[in-house]
Specification:
Number of helices: 11
Largest sheet: 8 strands, mixed
CATH superfamily: Alpha/Beta hydrolase fold, catalytic domain
CATH class: Alpha Beta
Structural class: alpha/beta
């Protein structure tokens, strides 16, 4: 599968489908496999990538920032001949998408910013700090992941043992699980995130997707983004935590598709 060397990082990417360009950017701790590429490839030329420090991409020396990671995405677009695209990002990928919208407006058709925020929230800071501390104890990966579940999902989802185990199995079966070093460097980049001075520069039509029960990136932050991005539309997924692509994948994907096509 394709890799491309960009200055200090070797990025893994995949492409599928035909049509207008759609670039999808993943969040902290996950890689391109979080996206249902096949679903969107019916209507778009979909490009997904592993961010630096995740999946099959390399982990160059830090420090990084959301601006650096946005520049990675744009450099990949340049290398692939993508002059204009829709950009979709979830969580950290939404932070990166904000930077793309603000700093590289000439590349942007529409943006979708899901479960994101203008500044790294205190609960995200505390949660990632705890994960980094626990990594020092060489705990089994399943235990580390289980520790994070209450922050990722709604109560209804957590009470469904089959769904929880399916998610755990999906994450733990990934042969390219994120390294502790990659997680720490991505987290350190997130800690410096503050898009507030840049939001007024985002002019592309933007769908802000928030989730009612999201603890990591609370709904109030999606509301803030929708208020301060001039051409933004806010939509809220009820009874859902931080991972709508797991809890309500059909709804999540359809909301994105409807916005991009209409």
């Amino acid at each position: 599968m394709p890799h491309i060397q960009l200055k200090d990082v070797n990025l893994y990417y995949e492409q599928q489908g035909e049509g207008p360009n759609l670039v999808m950017v993943a969040g902290l701790g996950v890689d391109h496999s979080m996206w249902n590429t096949e679903y969107f490839a019916k209507d778009f030329r979909v490009t997904v990538l592993d961010n630096r420090g995740a999946g099959q991409s390399s982990t160059p020396k830090g420090p990084w920032s959301m601006k650096v990671m946005a520049a990675d995405v744009i450099a990949l677009c340049d290398a692939l001949g993508i002059k204009k695209a829709h950009f979709v990002g979830h969580s950290m990928g939404g932070h990166i998408t904000q930077m793309i919208g603000a700093l590289y407006p000439q590349y942007c058709d529409k943006l979708v910013i899901a479960c994101s925020e203008q500044i790294f929230s205190i609960i995200s800071r505390l949660a990632t700090n705890q994960q980094i501390v626990l990594m020092n104890y060489n705990l089994p990966p399943r235990v580390l992941l289980q520790n994070y579940l209450p922050l990722l999902f709604s109560m209804d989802f957590l009470e469904n043992e089959d769904k929880v185990n399916a998610f755990l199995d999906f994450m733990l079966d990934n042969p390219y699980a994120q390294s502790p070093e990659g997680y720490i460097l991505q987290t350190e980049a997130l800690r410096t995130h503050d898009s507030r001075p840049l939001l007024e520069r985002i002019k592309a039509p933007s769908l802000i997707l928030g989730c009612e029960d999201d603890l990591l990136t609370p709904l109030k932050n999606s509301q803030y983004l929708a208020k301060h991005i001039s051409n933004a539309t806010l939509k809220v997924i009820p009874n859902c935590g931080h991972a709508p692509f797991v809890e309500y994948p059909e709804m999540f994907n359809q909301m994105i598709l409807d916005y991009l096509k209409n």
